[in-house]
Structure formats: C-alpha cells, structure tokens
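QA checklist item 7 of 12: single-chain prediction sanity check.
[x] sequence parsed
[x] length recorded as 882
[x] structure emitted
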Amino acid sequence: MATVGHPEHGLEYAGPWYTWGPYVAERAWGTVREDYSADGDAWRSFTHDQSRSRAYRWNEDGLAGICTLHQDICLGLALWNGHDPILKERLFGLTGHEGNHGEDAKEYWWYTDATPSHSWLRWRYHYPQAAFPYEDLVAVNAARGRDEPEYELADTGVFDDDRYWVVEVTYAKAGPTDITMSVAVTNAGPQAASLHVLPSLWFRDTWSWDQDRVRPVLSTQAGDLLAEHERAGVYRLAAAPGPGGVAPVPLFCENATNTQRLFGTQASTPFPKDGINDHVVDGAPTVNPDQVGTKAAWWYRLDVAAGDTVELRLRLYSPTAGDETDPDWAGAAFDTVMAARKAEADTFFAELAGPATPPQQAAVMRAAFAGMVWGKQFYRYDVPAWLDGDAGEPAPPTGRGQIRNGRWRHLDAYDILSMPDPWEYPWFAAWDLAFHCVVLAHLDPSFAKYQLVLLCREWFMHPNGALPAYEWSFDDVNPPVHAWAALKVFDLDAAASGVRDYAFLERVFQKLLLNFTWWVNREDPDGNNAFEGGFLGLDNIGPIDRSHLPAGWRLEQSDGTAWMAFYALSMLNISLVLAEHDDVYEDIATKFFEHFAAITDGVADNGLWDPADGFFYDQLVRPDGLRVPLRVKSVVGLIPVLAALEVTESTTASRTRLRKRFSDFMARRRGPGQVDRCGFVSLAPDSDRLMLTVVDPERLRRVLVEVLDEERMLSPHGIRSLSKAHAAEPFWVELDGQEFSVGYEPAESRTALYGGNSNWRGPVWMPINYLVIEGLERYHQYLGDSFTVECPTGSGQQLTLSEVAKELRRRLVSLFLPDAAGVRPADGGGLRADPGGRAGPLFYEYFDGDTGAGLGASHQSGWTALVADLIRGMPTPAAGRD
C-alpha cells in the first residue's frame, strides 16, 4: 500500500495505480511556502524569472507533469520555439502586483482527459511560434487600470495566422510503474517551423534540507535515462528516435540553485538547475559531460511542415515492471497500451454519462472530470519548519509568524490534495475542497472521502477545532460546508456501490463536532445566535471589507448566521443517518435540532429579515449599539434559503423516538402551529413529515421575486452574485466618517479589495448557484407541485420550485455548450488561440453576469466542475430520509 510522508499521513486507501499521478503543480513560484521574506510578499519573494534557476523547497512545477506520490521523481515537458529567451518549462502568468485584476495565467492549455487511477491522462497546450511576449504582457497590463479588461496573450497578436504549435501529451499505463508517454506536436501555422522538445526527468530536492536523505542519481544505462532513488526505487526513461530515425540527445544538470545568477555568489555546481536551459538556448557549457545529475532531459529537434503532426514516444518504467529489452516497446506494444487505456476511459465515461445524456453535455462532463483528476496535487507544508527555517540554512527573518500562520504550528501537510486551480491556486482551500469532493465522489469516492477525513485530521485541524482556510491565511473563516459535503459524498458513494459507509460518516462527524463548537464560541461572541465570520468566501460583495472593521464596530452577517443554520441542519441530518445504526446519535440529533431553532431566533431577534423589502440583509452594529442594515441585494441575502431540511416519516423506532423529542421541544417553545418566529416548522396533522427552514414559504416567495428577475439577479447563465439594479442605484454607507459604496459590476473587479481579482459584485458563481438549486429541490420535496412562483419575474409563467431548479441548471450548463456558431458563452466570443473551440471547454472561476464570459482563474475545475454533477441530473439532494 502506498503511503505519503509520516506513517500516519499516508494515503490510506491508495493502491499501486496511484503510485504515479498528475501531482505536479503548474506553479510553485510565488507561493506562501516558498516565501522566506521579511514582509510576507510571496509574489516578489520568488518570481517567475527566478524559477528556472532556483531550486524549490517544498514542491515542484512543470508542464504536463506527473510524479510519484512523494514527488520523489517527476516527469514533464520543456519546449523551445527557437526565439524565446528561455525554455518553456512552466506556464507564465502575472503576479498579484502585475495584473490589473490580480494574478492571471497568460497561457492556453487544457486538461482534455483523465481516469481516476491516472491510467490515462491527456493534456494540451498551444505554444506560439514567435517569441513569447513576456515583457509586453507585463508592460501593457501594468499600464491598464481596474476599469479596463485584462490584456491577454492572444491580444498581443502572437497567435495571428494560426502561427502556433499544438502540443498534446498523453500518458497511458501498461502497469502501475510502466508508463507510455506520447508527445504529439502539430504545426497549426501556414509555414514550416522548428521546435525543440525536451521530455524531462528530475528529482524533487529533499537532500539539501534533510541531511539524512541520500542524494539520488540520474545517469544513462543501455541508451536510457536511469533514475535511482532511495525511496522511489529505480526507473528508466526510454526515448524512441524522432523523425528520420534521429535519436534525441541526453542532457544533464543539477536541480540546484544557480546562486551566481541570482545572488552573485559562488555556485555550488557548474551545472545548476538552469543548465539545460542555458545550453539549449545559448549554447553554454552548463550540462554535465559525464551525463550524471539530478535533472535530465531528452533533447529532440523537430522540423515540421505546415499542418503536419510529429509524434514522439517515450516509456518510463521500473525495470521489474516489464521486459526492458523489448525491441518493439515503441511500436505495436506502445499502440496496444494506448488503445486499451483509451477504450477503458471511453467505457468508464460513457457509463457515467448514461445513454440519455446528449453528446455535447457528455463531453463537457468528461472535460470537467479530467480537470478534477489533473487537480490532484502533491502538497508539502511543514509550518514549524517553514517558520523556523532548516538546519544548516540561514534563519528566516524574525516576526514571520506575525505575518501569517504563526498560530498553526501543528500543521504538517504531506499528501495529495485536490487543488482549486493548479496554476492560480496551487494550494488547498478548505471550502473549495468541500465542493471538489462532491464532484470527485462521482469519479473516485474513496479519494473524495479521504480528502474530507484528511482536512479534519489533527495535523490539519487546529486544536481549537478551526479548519485551515488556505496557506495565505489559515486563520480566514470560510463557510462551514463540510458536513453537507460529507453527506453528499456518503449518498453518492452509497448510490454507486450499494454500501453505506457509516464509518466514514461517523469519522468526519466526530471531528466536525469540534469545528461546530469552535464556530459557536468564536463567531457568536455575544451569544445571541447572530453570527459574524468576516470573509466567508464572499470576498468584496458588500460595500466594506467584512474582515477589517474599525474598532468597536461589528457586522452581524445574514450569510454568517444562515451558514450556521445550514451547518446545524447538515449535522442534524448526519445524526439522523447515524442514528439508523447507532441510537447513541439520537441525543446529538436533538441537540442540533434545538441549536437550529435557536439560530432562527437569532435571525428574527436581530432584524436580519427586512419585511418591507422582503430580503435578508447584514446588520452593521455601531459602537453605540445602533444597527444599520446594509440594504444590498446580493447572494448574502439568498444564503438563508439554503438552510432547509425535510424530516420524512419513518417506521423505525429511532426515528419515532426522535419525532417525539422534536414535538415535545416545539410544544415547550410555543405549542403546535405552523410558523415558528422567523423559521418554519410544520407539523402537518395528516402527515408525519417535518420541514425545518430559516425561510418560510411566503418569505421564500418574496426573496425569489428579486432572485428570478432578469433585470436584477437572474442572468442568462445563472444567478448573479449582486443585483443588476445596483448598476443604476449603488448602495452607500458611512462608516467611521468614511463613505463606502457597492455597485453592480458584471465582470472583473474595479476595487483592490482582496487583491482585486476576487469579485462577486455581479458575476455568476457556480458553488452558490449549485447550493441554491439543491435548496429549491428540498423545498419542492415538501411543498410539492401546488407551490409555484413566477419565473422569470414578470413573465406571467408559474413554475414549481423543481422546475425553477431545472431552469437554473439549464442556464448554468449552457455556459459550456457551443452555440450555432460553435462558440461557448464561457469563451467570451471565442478564443483566438483555439479557433472553433476544438480543444474543449475551460472551467473558469466565475462568469460575467451579463454575457457569461469566463473570468478569474481559467482552470478552476474544482468548484466549477460542479457542472458535471448538474449534467448527471443532480441526484436527489441530501434531505431527510426514510
């Protein structure tokens, strides 16, 4: 069984097919882990320019990279078009300081296919044939303001006349440690052109930081690259000849920092990390003539006619995995492996899609799932070692713990984690991960369950019960969605396997009890069940920075309180499931039922519901106690709709006892009836069904008037995060002598709040839309077909809540479907770097509230891959059960 890191940190379920996977990040520079500065400016501490010359401390990056579980050995790709000043070894993008809307990758690449076991992986990249415009991208974006669009790679003209290379990398496993690699290079341009292709093999540097580690060795043996590593074992990388039978040239250097170039000090080796780069680009004598090192590459030089494709074939294998002397490994045997793995992938995804799924939607679903698999990343972060520095190395500047993560010395991450975006967000994010797991449960339920359990383990969860948010600030507070996600994963796994994994659910639930208590103690300081929380993942959707208020001011958040109601109901629901096989959980179920009721009191007592406007608002509490409602029509006021649970009738003794406890509790509060203050608790006389909500049906109807209005919150492609009405009527508030405002912005942010690239002032945001759809489905289960609302508002068309959910699902899925002209709305009129959209859809972080054009991170397969769940028909949501 494969394990990662310390024995207790292991991938406990991982079988041999997970030994190699797409665990290599697309960016390791500019991350918190690699930042050893005094000011905590990670972007400037380790730059893209340094990355080719400076060894990483914590993890590697590369193009189309795969590696072992511990990231001991990495395999990837480097390219050179003959004009660039450097090899293309990693994707380029602007830092948070350089982009006029924050950090942004300035490349075009796609995850085109992947199976959960990584037996089949495909990746595609479009590389300009002219010099890559590094300086132009930096200069023009720096000159643009926040009120202007980003300057993209295609805007430079470098893709004009289709003068680019299509590079497609395919990995197919003949066995767990026997991997065939195809690199197909197509000249899309009108003229013949030349390209240098360098499949690369290297070791992650662990020996420089840990003196007990044996330095591994790369060398040549019998015409192959030979990798020898104390933990990973022995591997060989064989390379077939290129066109015309010309064999590639092996090049070697060290994965060691070029201190002479970066710091002007004596280099530890004449063949540093950028040695292959300097040799290929400038002809420098910086590769080891003895052909040994810790980084190596096979150097192919190709001349390709216009429209032609050249394929290069390689094989990475452990000598014990197969016949290393097979003379036909690059011929019929290679074809057989590729064909077999492709056929298996086709069958797997056809079964997932089912015969009723239209081909275009099935293709979107498959691409989304591919992004999820490619988003599995090796993540190493030992916080105390990072804070204190390594033995034998210069001590980091003092006071770094005051900048970030000083309270998280227990955190010691050494695992494979699902990342939001392998370039823009190459680190785990707690609340993103919950949504990832819902999608992963369709593909690989074991991995989805492992992720949720892992985040709650003692080397992640704080001793006080807090979950770490993300490495930029583990202290940030994210919405508590993990109980909901655990139950979704439990249900999806049970539906696929027929087995209800109570042990998994119980394991997560026990740790989330600590987290729930932390929320109650920290985010409800006054004990009035009106919760704060600050950031909560909604970034700068409001007029003020919710995490940094003036002294004495407080913000009682509609969404913070609603998230806690949602959390309480999710924990109640899990308790009901666990009580089916262990009646100990009956008491806990009652506890969460009572806590939910108290939270609905908090909503009512603190004026979060505005009866005149028919909407929920945050309450700004001044130092003198005066409350100021922030009348902003946004998803903040929609979050209360998510907190809904139907407890269905049951013949089990456990459920009968619980029903009696619930009834007794409600009778003590106010006697039998329909409406319980702000919440809605129904005890229908002719039914044993019970509905728990924050928003009763009539309030729901009023909220949906705003939400389903196409001139306000309903866009052609989902629910906007802020009402379009605020375009003409911005909301203003005075805070401590300063005026703040918020207005509708359908696309990128015009404010620097949260770095400027996190903007929910209008765009469509997949995770909240997904939760709203699921919430409406839950309401429909209880209210039935007799309860209808006008949709769209003003249309005269009455729809059931199930039909409204179906319409929202349709609008969201349409983002990724080509129109009559073959253009997807998410592509914003089409990508000039991919005419006709042949490469497939991209899964953006969020979408323009008017046009649906993709915005933010371009490979946010993580939560945007929820579209795959929507396409599968979104199984019955996790509500009450019989």
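[x] summary fact logged: DSSP finds 21 helices and 35 strands in the chain.
[ ] second reviewer sign-off
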